[in-house]
UniProtKB/TrEMBL annotation:
Organism, as annotated: Urochloa decumbens
Claim: Flavoprotein is one of the keywords in the record: no
Protein name: Ripening-related protein 6
Any Pfam family matching the protein: KWL1
Keywords of this entry: Secreted, Signal
Segment forming the signal sequence: none
Subcellular localization(s) per the UniProt record: Secreted
SUPFAM superfamilies noted in UniProt: Barwin-like endoglucanases (SSF50685)
Length: 207
């Protein structure tokens, strides 16, 4: 009795040199898809770079040849060293709920012979305790771009607000923390705060 031939299967051995066209087609399709995805990612990345805003900290960072290095050493506001991490956060209206950037407000005299050091960096003058004035940490001082501008300071304790004028830098390269609003006694009085406390939490923004 004759035997029936067994049907061929997909695993049947193929002659040498045979190419599996279906596998090649699938591999080619995968390569095309991958190239397309990479192209889309590249376009998205380029678009993001074009539309992204420049880092405001780049402009505020004081380099060795910058605005502040042209000033006499005595015109840079000095504070006692204090450890702390760098927080570069330029203030903008509505930057946080409550209308400003969190900061630590300290009290300081701007008159000759007081602990503020030399004359103010913005105008080279000393100032009285009755003036509503402040010195800002180096990043916020922005290489003098906030000189004579008003900032709105809000007490974190009771929400009272006052506008004070920037006249000096609290030099973060010489020990001042990076989140300081160093203010005159008049600012504290306007906010209803006791200067004996020394430091209080506030928020601030450009007025």
């Amino acid at each position: 009795m004759g035997q029936c031939a067994s049907p061929s299967t997909s695993n049947e051995r193929r002659p040498p040199g045979h190419l599996d066209t279906s596998s090649l087609t699938m591999a080619s399709a995968k390569i095309v898809v991958l190239v397309g995805v990479l192209a889309l990612l590249h376009v998205s990345s380029a678009s993001a770079r074009r539309h992204s805003k420049p880092d405001p900290c780049d402009a505020a960072a004081a380099d060795e040849g910058g605005f502040l290095d042209d000033l006499p050493g005595g015109m840079r506001h000095k504070k006692a060293p204090h450890p702390g991490s760098h927080h570069c956060a330029p203030a903008r209206h509505g930057g946080r709920a409550g209308g400003g950037i969190p900061a630590v407000m300290t009290v300081n005299g701007f008159k000759r012979g007081e602990d503020g050091g030399g004359p103010s960096a913005c105008d080279g003058h000393f100032h009285g305790d009755g003036e509503l004035i402040v010195a800002l940490s180096t990043d916020w001082f922005a290489r003098g771009r906030r000189c004579h501008r008003g900032i709105r300071i809000t007490s974190a304790h009771h929400g009272r607000t006052v506008v004070a004028r920037v006249v000096d830098e609290c030099d973060s390269r010489r020990g001042c923390r990076h989140n300081i609003v160093d203010s005159s006694p008049a600012v504290w009085k306007a906010l209803g705060l006791d200067t004996d406390v020394g430091e209080v939490p506030v928020t601030w923004s450009d007025a």
